[in-house]
Amino acid sequence: MQESDKPSRKKQFFPINTDLRYYLKTHGRETALPVSYNDLLHIAYAVPILDKAGKDTLWEKALYDKEHWSNIKQGLINLYAILKTEGDYSFTKHLDVARVDYCTFGNSHPFRIRIVNRYNDNYDHYYIKREDASRVYGLELEHILSPNRMSFYTHKGTLVEEHIAGIPGDVFIRDYFERTETNKIRIAKEFVKFNERCFLRLLGDMRSYNFVVAITPDIEDYQYRIRAIDFDQQSYEGRKNLYLPQFFKENNPFVELTLKYLNAESIEQYRAEERTLIAYRIAASRYRIMDLLKIMSKDQISTDEKRVQLKNELGEHFQTTAFNRCKTMGELVKTVLRVALRPYLSRIQRNLGKIID
Hints:
single chain, alpha+beta, seven-stranded antiparallel beta sheet, 10 strands, globular
């Protein structure tokens, strides 16, 4: 990729406005949190975390002085209960905080909290980040338009997200592509569908280390699901190709696999399948998605320069002037969905009418 084709190195953070805050409260995303992002910034010192091969993971183990740790430890446990059980603290007595990790790579500088069950040493993770409107829009669009359900909460500048399980895309390329049991045709199919999902809702920067691959055993074989894990670049960039995972060099092995095992007709079939599924999800959650896109369409989550560039490139891609009137990135998302899914939504509406009749 050209330097100008790469995602912005430093993405601007955007505040959550009053309308979005009300939406989050209405849909159970806003709640009082016992620990904030700023609470975790009081790190006494940190130790780099290395992988099994001794390579720097870009994460650091954060350590706190005794007094501060005693103030936040139980809060981190309670926060896990809020995320997992809507605040039922009855089981928290056997939970402990095994580690707090801090990442200085990328834009969001998240904290990763490892919660461990003291009875059986089973552990789980969740993330604490700075609140950012574009990231929140990304999480909500993923929840509504993708096959994946997202669990997250916001409160006074803090965003808490559940851990998304799966094999990081770059690790999957390195360790799974050449295994004999790997079904390469199904991986190719899923990459086509993932590519379509990202483009239709304008989720950018889906390089291999920003998504995971979940493997599910199936009858005599395996199924694969690619899931985004980074929503920082929701409707932010001006280049259309930055919303298509196929154009990132880090994803070339997935692209080569697709070109090797799928012909043009199969690719179009899988794109149509994914558009149909997204159309069904919109029909099923039409009031919620309408509310979200209405708020998003009035919000400023990118620069005018990027919006104008993307507006022009999308108009050229879809061969329509429908994007000319778009004054925000939210309006661009709404217009992409309307233009790309119009025939699919029309068929669904006709079929629903037949059922009702």
